[in-house]
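FAQ: What does the model actually see?

It sees only this:
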Amino acid sequence: MKLRGIRVVDLSVFLPGPYLSMSLADHGAEVIKVEAPGEGDPGRHIGLSDGPDTVFFRNVNRGKKSVVVDLKNPEERERLLRLVDTADVFIEAFRPGVAERLGVDYATLSARNPGLVYASLSAFGQSGPYRNRPAHDMATEALAGVIGITLGEDDKPAIPGLPVADILTALQGLSGILMALLRRTQTGRGDYIDLSMHESVLAATTNVLGPTFAEGRQPIPKHERTTGGSAFYRIYETADGRHLTLAGQEPKFIRNLLSALGRLDLAPLCEQGPGPHQAPVVAFLAETFRTRPLAEWVSWFEPLDVCFAPVNTLPEALADPQVEARGAVLRDEAGRPHLAPVIRFLHEPAEPRLAVPAMGQHNGDML
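And it is asked to produce this:
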């Protein structure tokens, strides 16, 4: 595997840092999860369980080793420092300044281990007026303007279905760590990575910033290309109360569908771009899709070259034939499901270790 021989010490909890370090573990890195005495990672206690661990915890902590360290105890902190001396990567997600108070900041650790790649994940980064402000995913999404364009049919902000800031920050962190490790092969020196959840979300708004960058105004979501202003990028209700999506606005898809429905005359409205002028097309499609249940529409769309999908439930999504064909869900020895690694190498593919560590299970081996 690509990362065999890389040792990672991870002090983070909840979602962004653990998801990042699990991605490294799936590709061969040895990840040592450092937990505080007591409850350990709060993720161990969040949500439902289908075995000894919660699903939440299992989904981001498989394949790791767990040690319990009281960083306020000088002897235990020294044991951790000796472990970090052997590490390639260090991950923490404290509020700015906490790592320094605990004696595990970059200056301290890099002085002992100059090749260390150190990643700090926080809500707003290590500088700026919000650096000490507490925040989780949704607050950073709100400040970055994303919730302000995630509107329901009532034009009021809606809670996103995914923790976008958490996952984006983890993936940005994965990219940064791998770049730093690559550079280290040339210089022998590690680096410090300052990751902001807020900026990770802001950086993901690239395709919706046209009105703001070009005209200095807030986008009107129901008039914009990917947030409701296009008849061919919308959600429609079916006769049985289920929903389907159209998600492709290229002229060929527009014409293929409208031709099949006998309304090719509506195509020019869509080809003018997004906006209120597409209302007649939206109305026609909404009325049409309400005439049959979702399963019939799925069969009807099958021969057409159109970007279409049913709005699946999560159980339906995991049972989808595409998921099965790609092996996107794995099962451990107890039969519990795991999401497979997304990065698929031809050579040295991932070999995820599906065991989940008990709290402090590896204290004897590691410390």
